Amino acid sequence: MAPWIIIVILGACAIAYALIMPRKDKAQESSHQLVQEMESTLEHYMTEIEQDNDALIQRVAELKGEAAATDQRMMSQLQELQQRLDQLEREKARMPESDQSPAMIVNARQTAEGLQAQGLMDSVKAEANQQATATSDLQVEQKSQELRRESIKDRYTELFRLHDEGKSMDAIAKQTGIQLGEVQLILQLAEREES
């Protein structure tokens, strides 16, 4: 074979390789860009979820603080009533039977019974407050979970409407102005939330 033929063949191979090489780079760049877009969208979504969780945790802490203050107030009232009752019983025990008129005995019994009833009412109120606080905490948590479940569909209603109509991801991306990778990520996140 002549040397010029070898040179021509090598030149043709170099040109073919040069034409193929940029296509691989473009494909790699587009897939790398898609991954970056998905990561960016996922980071944004996770940041929003963290902010929502922080707000929820703060609200639950406030509710617990309020409940603890209410419980403390009720306990102090209950202790005060118990001290009064103890004081009345001591006074009654100190009085000789002859000094205790029937009216005083009835009055002391009524006072003691009233204090016991008041203490019982206070303890019932404290238990009711604790149950209300627990119920309130549960409701806050359920509401938070509902917000997390509905948040992605609420944020992208147009996207999900088009998806439900059977539009392709490219068509959805063009109509909503959202990048194709982000559309894919949003749909994947919605599928995970539903499962």
From TrEMBL:
Alphabetized UniProt keyword annotations: Coiled coil
Stretches of the chain forming a coiled coil according to its record: 35-98
A matching Pfam family: DUF6115
Name of the featured protein: Uncharacterized protein
Organism: Paenibacillus silvae
